[in-house]
């Protein structure tokens, strides 16, 4: 019989504990959907460059930072302090704001390009959907991070 250990409310997980505790269980889906946004936007013609450059920046920045954040937690470098819980909340709140703004920009640009090549339009629609899914995942993560930070 396998023994299960519950994570105390005021502590941060480390090691494989990040794969079993909320909000840290959202790291992998955030990486997957953020990476899909990055890949889909990069696979189409970047026109206009400025707003889509913002979308690319957001998706690459959040992908890299989420990966680094996951590695920091998995390696146990956070030393279980409330400062790390606050930083987790702040980073994921910033990611929600970034992805929401990028998703709205991407949706607006996609709507304007509806009369262009159909295949690129479909790819852009998929990127919009994945951007909003990533926004939702980061939003759930920030809410759960705020609850965890409150209990520290």
Automatic annotation (TrEMBL):
Task: Extract one GO BP annotation from the record.
Answer: myelination
- Which PROSITE patterns does this one have? MARVEL
InterPro entries according to UniProt: MAL, Marvel, MARVEL-CKLF_proteins
Sorted UniProt keywords: Membrane, Transmembrane, Transmembrane helix
Primary localisation category: membrane
Which residue ranges run through the membrane?
Answer: 25-46, 52-77, 89-111, 123-147
Q: Where in the cell is it found?
A: Membrane
The terms under GO molecular function for this entry are: structural constituent of myelin sheath
One term under GO cellular component: membrane
Please state every residue range assigned to the domain named MARVEL.
18-150
Question: Its topology with respect to the membrane?
Answer: Multi-pass membrane protein
What name appears for this protein in its UniProt entry? Myelin and lymphocyte protein-like
Write down the species.
Answer: Parambassis ranga
Encoding gene, per UniProt annotation: LOC114447240
């Amino acid at each position: 019989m396998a023994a299960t250990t519950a994570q105390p409310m005021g502590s941060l997980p480390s090691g494989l504990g990040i794969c079993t505790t909320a909000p840290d269980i959202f790291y992998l889906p955030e990486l997957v959907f953020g990476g899909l946004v990055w890949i889909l936007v990069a696979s189409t013609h970047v026109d206009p460059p400025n707003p889509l450059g913002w979308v690319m920046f957001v998706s690459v920045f959040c992908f890299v930072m989420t990966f680094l954040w996951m590695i920091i937690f998995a390696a146990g470098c956070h030393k279980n302090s409330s400062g790390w819980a606050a930083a987790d909340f702040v980073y994921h709140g910033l990611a929600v704001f970034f992805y929401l703004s990028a998703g709205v920009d991407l949706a607006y640009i996609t709507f304007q390009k509806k009369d262009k090549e159909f295949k690129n339009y479909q790819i852009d629609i998929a990127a919009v959907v994945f951007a909003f899914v990533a926004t939702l995942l980061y939003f759930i993560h920030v809410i759960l991070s705020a609850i965890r930070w409150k209990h520290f």
